[in-house]
Amino acid sequence: MPGPTFIDGAQVTLRTIEEEDLPVLQRYVNDPEVWRGIGRSDPVNAEQEREFFEDVVCDDGSVQLLVCAEGEAVGTVGLDLDQRAVQSGELGYWIAPEHHNQGYGSDAAALLTEYGFSQRGCHRIEARVFEFNDASQALLESLGFREEGRRREATFIDGEYQDILRYGVLAEEWEAPDGV
Q1: Residues 75, 94: contact at Cβ < 8 Å?
Q2: Spatial distance between the Cα atoms of 14 and 66, rounded to a whole number of angstroms
Q3: Residues whose CB is less than 8 angstroms from the CB of residue 146 and which lie 6 or more positions away in sequence, other chains included
């Protein structure tokens, strides 16, 4: 059973990630459609998933949540916070392939973006997307994020160098979608 509800959305519930969630997260993150989209080409074993939990999920510098639909874990969404000169955050997310095209990623990303602006005082929120990930680019653009730049051939995935696209939205530009 996933952890307690943190934010309710129109289609998903964002819950805390608990230790008992690690086996399902490990299974999902080793799916080629997930690891390719997040740029991780190495397999993740149980110990590594636990290290992610301890080093990232339990870190005060980020908010990492389980995306749940109808009581089932379907992915994760996170906001890494940077409180230096300009309060900002970097949004990251993935949804398990069998749950794609149902609006779960959009709802989760919108909920956490709204949280970043309204509850954490972020001035800007950004995201990185690989050039081949048209779905993620469309998701961000549908939420009002703008492409701000491109790092040419900045990562190596599936035997090829890939560009990384940078997206961002400012608090003054953000309009939360209905239901958020």
Answers
A1: yes
A2: 6
A3: 167, 168, 169, 173
Tokens found for residue 108: 């989760």
Q: Which residue has the tokens 């990384």?
A: 164
**Mean pLDDT across the stretch 39-68?**
88
Residues 129, 67: Cα–Cα separation, whole Å: 19
19-to-14, 28, 88 alpha-carbon distances in Å: 16, 15, 28
Q: Which domains does the chain have, with CATH numbers?
A: 5-123 (3.40.630.30)
Q: What is the pLDDT of residues 81-108, one digit of tens each?
A: 986 766 999 999 999 999 999 999 999 9
**Of the candidates 86, 76, 75, which has an alpha carbon nearest to the alpha carbon of residue 126?**
86
- 117 touches 180 (CB < 8 A): no
Q: Give the confidence band of 30 by pLDDT, cuts at 50, 70, 90.
A: very high
Q: For residue 37, is pLDDT > 70? A: yes
Segment 32-54 shows an average pLDDT of 87
Task: Give strand ranges (E) for the chain.
Answer: 5-8, 13-16, 62-69, 72-82, 88-95, 124-130, 146-157, 160-170
The answer, as to whether pTM is greater than 0.85, is yes
